[in-house]
């Protein structure tokens, strides 16, 4: 057992508290990673605001990168000194979903309350999302980490842990985009920009970004969008139809957690199109659509958790794309902060103007 510094949530909606916590040694199948960087995801903010409930106190944070500094029994394929990204995708390896190649929907989630972290007084402390990466170190299951080149900047690498794989994976794995198809991406935030990148990499013909501000639409074009439409316009889906030459989209990727966006997503679809459900609204949110229209036109609603990513397959591919200049990571970083500044970084993220804020250790 060792003592480390972490940002702890003790009350939903209140600022995080920087304090010392206890971290256990890695057990069977686990690794200890000393973190260099962790990004702030809107999911962390939603949890800290109480949108999805859960045990308190808790340590959030799940987009991390660092170096392996200890190995538990039975760990193979890694050694101390390896540079890695840390993800929240923890695969048991034996449930039907894991065995079928869908580790993002593993049916055996870990017990985060009785995990490797505890308060300084030894009381239960939730390791949220199987990571708890708003901390100097984490102990996680070996299935959650992927090796990266030792010289890869950690602030860029940590983005691969969630936002990038969620967006790119939604385009490639969930939507299964083919070259020449037309795509709408609702939301040009961190995940939305990566969905746009994923559509570009998959060979999409036309990519329409939909957002609330002109500034974000201009940024979306830097990442591959061919058109930008303000969500505040009357019936923005009509503008998308015009951009596509009078037809609907082959895929609409909803990257924001807003019920209204889900209400409107099917309106952008063409015959046989798919609405990919990525952004996570609050638990009590509800959405409405016409099942008759969707059935008649052969359309589909497809849930996509973490981009349906298989991390050992997809992250090395994305690292190569980054090194080849085909995947933008550095451009996603809005600001770099210390752990002591995490509440300021969260406030900045909540303005909606930030792509990704990164905490550097």
Describe the structure.
With about 350 residues, the protein is of the alpha/beta class. The chain folds into two domains: about 1-160 and about 330-360, Alpha-Beta Complex (Quinone Oxidoreductase, Chain A, domain 1), CATH 3.90.180.10; about 165-305, Rossmann fold, CATH 3.40.50.720. Helices cover about 25% and strands about 25% of the residues. The chain has helices at about 40-50, 95-100, 155, 165-175, 190-200, 215-220, 235-245, 260-265, 290-295, 310-325, 340-350, and strands spanning about 1-10, 15-25, 30-40, 60, 65-70, 85, 115-120, 125, 135-140, 145, 180-185, 205-210, 225-230, 250-255, 270-275, 300-305, 335, 355-360. The strands form four sheets. Strands 3, 5, 6, 9, 10, 17 and 18 form a seven-stranded mixed beta sheet that branches. Helix 4 runs parallel beside helix 5 (about 190-200).
How do the strands and helices of this protein lay out in sequence?
Layout: E1 2-8, E2 17-23, E3 30-39, H1 42-48, E4 58-59, E5 63-71, E6 83-86, H2 96-99, E7 117-119, E8 126-127, E9 137-141, E10 145-147, H3 154-157, H4 163-174, E11 182-186, H5 190-202, E12 206-211, H6 214-222, E13 227-230, H7 236-243, E14 249-254, H8 259-264, E15 269-277, H9 291-296, E16 300-303, H10 311-323, E17 333-337, H11 342-350, E18 356-360
Helix pairs in contact: 4-5
């Amino acid at each position: 057992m060792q003592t480390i510094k972490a940002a702890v949530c003790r009350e939903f909606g209140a600022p995080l508290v920087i304090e010392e916590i206890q971290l256990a040694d890695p057990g069977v199948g686990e690794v200890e990673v000393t973190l260099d960087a962790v990004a702030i995801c809107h999911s962390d903010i939603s949890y800290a605001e109480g949108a999805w409930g859960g045990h308190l106190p808790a340590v959030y944070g799940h987009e991390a990168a660092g170096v392996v500094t200890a190995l538990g029994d039975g760990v193979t394929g890694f050694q101390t000194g390896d540079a890695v990204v840390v993800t929240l995708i923890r695969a048991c390896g034996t449930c039907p979903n894991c065995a079928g190649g869908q580790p993002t929907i593993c049916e055996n989630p870990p017990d985060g309350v009785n995990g490797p972290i505890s308060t300084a007084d030894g009381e239960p402390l939730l390791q949220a999302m199987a990571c708890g990466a708003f901390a100097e170190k984490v102990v996680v299951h070996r299935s959650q980490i992927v090796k990266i080149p030792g010289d890869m900047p950690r602030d860029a690498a940590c983005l691969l842990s969630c936002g990038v794989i969620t967006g790119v994976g939604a385009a490639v794995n969930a939507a299964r985009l083919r070259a020449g198809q037309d795509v709408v991406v609702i939301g040009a935030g961190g995940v939305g920009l990566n969905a746009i990148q994923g559509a570009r990499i998959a060979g999409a013909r036309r990519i329409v970004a939909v957002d609330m501000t002109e500034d974000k639409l201009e940024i979306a074009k830097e990442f591959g969008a061919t058109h930008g439409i303000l969500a505040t316009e009357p019936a923005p889906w009509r503008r998308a139809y015009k951009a596509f030459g009078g037809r609907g989209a082959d895929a609409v990727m909803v990257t924001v957690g807003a019920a209204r966006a889900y209400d409107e997503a099917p309106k952008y679809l063409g015959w046989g199109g798919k609405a990919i459900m990525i952004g996570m609204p609050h638990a009590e949110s509800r959405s409405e659509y016409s099942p008759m229209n969707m059935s008649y036109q052969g359309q589909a609603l497809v849930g996509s958790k973490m981009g349906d990513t298989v991390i050992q397959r997809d992250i090395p591919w994305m690292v190569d794309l980054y090194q080849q200049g085909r995947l933008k990571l550095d451009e996603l970083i809005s600001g770099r902060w210390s752990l002591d500044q995490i509440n300021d970084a969260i406030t900045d993220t909540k303005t909606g103007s930030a792509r990704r804020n990164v905490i550097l250790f």
